[in-house]
Design a protein that fits this description.
With about 90 residues, this protein is mostly helical. The protein has a single domain, classed as Fe(II) trafficking protein YggX (YggX-like, Orthogonal Bundle), CATH 1.10.3880. The protein is about 50% helix and about 10% strand. The chain is built from three helices and two strands; from the N terminus they run ββααα. The protein has a two-stranded antiparallel ribbon with strand order 1-2. Helix 2 crosses helix 3. The longest helix has 17 residues. The chain is globular, with a radius of gyration of 14 Å. The termini are far apart.
């Protein structure tokens, strides 16, 4: 049986994550309050942030930036796209 959560990002009850996707207290908050679909949306947004800002996962400043954006994406006012970003046409 799958686990459901009241997703803070989608504002509805949805299938939860199987494990905490991130270490520490933030990871536990995400596990408790974020659905699997919302996590997928974050991964897409994170990829866009990495690409548009030319971030390196090895850079501690980049990791701190992404963690702050993750916090905003799920529990704040949302993570904004970089200035001048134009989404690809589908």
């Amino acid at each position: 049986m799958s686990r459901t959560v009241q997703c803070v990002h989608l504002n509805k009850e949805a299938e939860g994550l199987k494990t905490a996707p991130y270490p520490g207290e933030l990871g536990q908050r995400i596990f408790d309050n974020v659905s699997a679909d919302a996590w997928k949306a974050w991964l897409s947004h994170q990829t866009m942030l990495i690409n548009e800002n030319r971030l390196s996962a090895l850079d501690p400043k980049a990791r701190s930036f992404l963690e702050a954006e993750m916090e905003k994406f799920f529990f704040g006012d949302g993570s904004a796209t970089p200035e001048g970003f134009v989404p690809p046409e589908s």
